[in-house]
Automatic annotation (TrEMBL):
Reaction it catalyzes: (S)-4-amino-5-oxopentanoate = 5-aminolevulinate
Protein name, UniProt field: Glutamate-1-semialdehyde 2,1-aminomutase
Keyword terms, alphabetized: Cytoplasm, Isomerase, Porphyrin biosynthesis, Pyridoxal phosphate
UniProt-listed PANTHER family: GLUTAMATE-1-SEMIALDEHYDE 2,1-AMINOMUTASE, GLUTAMATE-1-SEMIALDEHYDE 2,1-AMINOMUTASE 1, CHLOROPLASTIC-RELATED
Gene3D superfamilies: Aspartate Aminotransferase, domain 1 (3.90.1150.10), Type I PLP-dependent aspartate aminotransferase-like (Major domain) (3.40.640.10)
Coiled-coil residues: none
Gene: hemL
Modified residues (N6-(pyridoxal phosphate)lysine): 267
GO cellular component: cytoplasm
Lineage: Bacteria, Fusobacteriati, Fusobacteriota, Fusobacteriia, Fusobacteriales
Species this protein is from: Sebaldella termitidis (strain ATCC 33386 / NCTC 11300)
GO terms (BP aspect): protoporphyrinogen IX biosynthetic process
GO MF terms held by the record: glutamate-1-semialdehyde 2,1-aminomutase activity; pyridoxal phosphate binding; transaminase activity
């Protein structure tokens, strides 16, 4: 595969952008190439790089592209919105429509505020929880990622893990001390800490963690969190930036029937444009400025183009909820075929999956938390990723991310994927 032009752009890029990329996970190298690919266009399930190579895309911009790239209806809505103007700094009716639509799909949300990213939404939700409870500390789970605000960058997942860190430099000790981290799914440790900790303002989690690879939660654990938060006056925050509108229209809270106090959303609600949201109970949300004194603002919050893309995306999903069943069925079939190959080639691997998300962990043990994920075979994963890339399939470059299947993936993509996985397993056995 010729990727010469990507290499040339990367040379240039490193001189002007740290690491040559605007988000660390994009800086992937494979066994055969020492620089990332630069993308020119996308359509449906495919990406096209600057050298003209075509790829089946299994990362979907890390979640937003549930309908595939450049969905015609979403594109039309965006074009219409562009003609109307791109940013006003004043409210629009569309923002109200999006808020109403989010509320309809998430009954736990009475009021919702739009932001420009998931990071910003999670940061605001935590600030709000502190103000509401008048307590200072945050409880989060090892390997869960909630964006890059200071207090949430402790034992975080995603790109941090990929580059071998769990915290970021530049965060004060005081901030770090206010964040308590626990292993995901460990009820005993949770109860132990809550018995001794009086200062916890919130527990924030990805109800379906997808930033340490995909982890499937136990319903009982989510229930316990709900009970304990109610008992101890702790705000339960579900960060559904990935799981929202992905595992179900109503997110993980609908799937597992658990009602959080606050919800953080992002990705799909912007239909591929920058957006985030935090929302929840009226009594908490009414503490946000200008009603209350918890400050949150944004020049581009509720940007009309982003909102138009999000509205159209959610409307398509709402009109045709079959999309979720079909996606789940297709992904399950794919995972079953991968599992058959695992057996055929005697590979030590296990696949976690839910809805249209999955992660292949190279270990014969169950993977239920960060410790388990870290113990899986990095070399085998890298061989898998590199082999897939050479075959024109973009899968997550790190075992700490999930594969995202979209509505636009067709039989040809699935056959290509399966052939690619088989080839990668042969390569793993040869290594
Ligand atoms: N929360 C979760 C669960 C995420 O996966 C992400 C991003 N991957 C974020 C928050 C941060 O969102 P953003 O990148 O839009 O700031």
């Amino acid at each position: 595969m010729n990727i010469k032009k990507s290499g040339e752009i990367f040379e240039r890029s490193q001189k002007s952008i740290p690491g040559g990329v605007n988000s660390p996970v994009r800086a992937f190298k494979s066994v055969d190439r020492q620089y990332p690919i630069f993308i020119e266009t996308a359509k449906g399930s495919r990406l096209y790089d600057v050298d003209g190579n075509e790829y089946t895309d299994c990362i979907g911009s890390w979640g937003p592209m549930l309908l595939g790239h450049n969905n015609e209806r979403v594109l039309e809505a965006v074009k219409k919105s562009l003609d109307e103007g791109t940013s006003f700094g004043l409210p629009t009716e569309k923002e109200v429509e999006l808020a109403e639509l989010i509320k309809e799909c998430y009954p736990s949300i009475d009021k919702v505020r739009l932001t420009t990213s998931g990071t910003e939404a999670a940061m605001a939700a935590v600030r709000l929880a502190r103000a509401y409870t008048q307590k200072n500390k945050i409880i989060k789970f090892e390997g869960c990622y909630h964006g890059h605000s200071d207090s949430l960058m402790v034992k975080a997942g995603s790109g941090l893990l990929t580059f071998g860190h769990q915290d970021s430099n530049g965060i004060t000790e005081g901030v770090m001390k206010d964040t308590i981290t626990l292993p995901f799914g460990n009820s005993e440790k949770l109860i132990e800490i809550l018995d001794s900790e009086e200062e916890a303002a919130c527990i924030i989690l990805e109800p379906v963690p997808a930033n340490m690879g995909l982890i499937i939660p136990e319903e009982g654990f989510l229930k316990l969190l709900r009970e304990k938060c109610t008992e101890k006056n702790i705000v339960l925050i579900f960060d559904e930036v990935i799981s929202g509108f992905r595992v179900s229209l109503g997110g993980a809270q609908e799937l597992f029937n658990i009602t959080p106090d606050l919800t953080v959303l992002g990705k799909i609600i912007g239909g591929g444009f920058p957006v985030g949201a935090f929302g929840g109970k009226k009594e908490i949300m009414d503490m946000v400025a200008p009603v209350g004194n918890v400050y949150h603002a944004g020049t581009l919050s509720g940007n009309p183009v982003s909102v138009s893309a999000g509205l159209e995306t959610i409307n398509i999903l709402k009109e045709n909820r079959e999309i979720y069943n079909t996606l789940e069925k297709r992904t399950k079939e794919l995972v079953l075929r991968i599992e058959e190959l695992i057996e055929k080639y005697n590979i030590k691997a296990t696949v976690n999956h839910i809805g249209s998300l999955y992660t292949i962990f190279f270990s014969d043990k169950k993977v239920e938390n960060l410790e388990d994920a870290m113990a899986t075979d990095d070399k085998a994963y890298n061989t898998y990723f590199s082999s897939m890339l050479e075959d024109g399939i973009i899968v997550p470059p790190s075992k700490y991310e999930a594969h995202f299947i979209s509505w636009a993936h067709n039989n040809e993509d699935f056959e290509k994927l399966i052939a690619g996985v088989e080839k990668s397993f042969i390569a793993i056995n040869q290594n």
